Amino acid sequence: MGKKRELIIELRGKMSQTEFAETLGVSQQAVSAIETGVMTPSIVIMKKYELFFRKPMEELFPDVFENIELWGDDVGTQ
Question: Contact 46/8 with Cβ under 8 angstroms?
Answer without folding.
Answer: no
